[in-house]
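Page 47, continued from p. 46.
Same chain as before, 643 aa.
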Amino acid sequence: MPKRASFWTSAILLAVASWAPAQEASTTDQKAESYYHYCLARMHEMQMQGAEAIENYQRAAALDPTAAYPHVALASLYQRTRQADLALESVKRALELDPDVASAQRILGTLYFSMLRNGGSPELAPQAVEAFRNAVRLEPGDMESRSDLARLLIASREPAEAGEHLAEIIKFNARAYYEMFLLAQVRREEGDVDAAIELLEQSIAVEPRQPQAREMLVELLQQERRFADLSELYANVLEADATDLDARIRLADALANEGRLEESVREFEKALAEDPTNVIVLVGLGMVQRELLRLDEAEALLKKAIASAPSHVLARYTLASIYEQKRQYVAAQTQWQELLEIPDPSPEVGSRRAEYWAHLGFAHEQLGRLDDAVAAFSEARQLAEGDPRFEMFFIQGLLTAERAEEALRAVESVLEKDADSPRFLALKARALDASGDGDDALAMMLTLADEHPDEDVFAQAVVDQYHRDKKFEASEAFLRERLKGSPDDPNLQFQLAATLERQGKVDEAEAVFESILRRDPDSAAALNYLGYMLADHNRRLDESLDFVKRALSQDPYNGAYLDSLGWVYYRRGELDLAEENLLKAIDAMRLTGVVYDHLGDLYLEKGDPAQAVEYWKKALDQDDDEVERDEVAAKIERATSGQ
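Result:
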């Protein structure tokens, strides 16, 4: 059975038949015969008879040499059949005959664009742009040409014109999601990040399956720290596909950045249930648990991550930081050393490794390995040459190691380059004091504090030196004068309260601490000091216990806070709890004499004078200005003499 012609094919045949006899009778009307062959070619083209279509288009062009449309049709057919050279030849001929044929300009632009994407010469880009501009000029409603033109203009660094065309497309078609994505790129280049974000959100709302648009939106939201919007984005992705593990991990991360830590934990735990060995999830959950001060849980997660990926830098860094928080400096030291052995291709490798060396130096200091600490700080400053932080760590390390002359030379070297640096001037004063020039150091700091009232570092240096010299009345007078200019400065107030307490002015000190806590009820330092002070003077021990516990809730491994808690329990007569917490404090504060002194008092109270003497002797072995040495020595004498 012969194939039936379609409605449109039949219509063309009838049209051709209706005037064909007249055409045959005429030998002069070549334009009519040209149109006949054009229509015949269209019929063959619709019936997928390419060769016959080309033959008739060519005859139409030959019969009417002034007509552009047969060449346009040929170009279109050649283009669809991937004969680019012939298409280009035909469309150029059409435009020679009539440059204002919009469809020919579009075909020319499309051909050049395709050649560009297939590795053609960059010189084709401006030719493609010109062709599409002509197409849009001739036919403003040609949104496809506008879209291609916009992409070329973006690539050619002409974002303003690209933006105009993309805006027109979106106005015409509110669901043009790809053009929204392109316009977002333009707006980002122009610096209008809010507009870019809005366009990306509109684009994804129309078509959620756009990884490029989603990634750009994520990048911009992170850049703008709009973590709530990020959380919403990934929640929507998971609503559409609850099995998208990557989206769940990113949601957990966004929630953590937003401060919604418990929700973040729940999402990470769901991800971990899906993939229990996923290192990204283990590290992410470990970091959130650390923020929640669940340090044991965080430690276990990070150890598991490192077991799977021993060279995972973030996992080791976070684990080392946890050991620092727990005051487990031997374990911290091991992790920092492991980090330093991992090759790091990052362009920031120097500053990053300097951080590791500095942390290693702090661990050495806490373990009493002071020369090792100085060596580590020296490595850090060499890796991050010119970074004042590491210069400062190095000088402070020298001072802690009692290498005052070296510290003075080092700080003067820095001040040769930056003579007005407040922190290094303060360090110079400390180095002068350590070298035996205490009067000069104090005079220098008093002058600088007077000349620079807004620089807290100078005031702190003055107070520190007064306290080292036990000149508490001078410290009080200095702080009260400073507070006239800054009556609500919490640092100055704290120093004043501490100074008052050291003079035995407990009621006045308590009033200042309470003033600090009225403005900042969560000030851990003020809570701890006030709680310890009340216990030390056997006052309001229930309140004292509450204050110290509130401080510890913010930093549960802080040795000073644990010492305070132990001392409160000692004053309350709860000696086993006192012993438990004072021993924890020793683990965290090995070099602090006051804790050993407290343990001596505890063991004497528990009826073990020999152990008490052992701890008092350890208190005297420490370089700790807080220890009342004469009083401790007297306690040793009384215990050993049986008095």
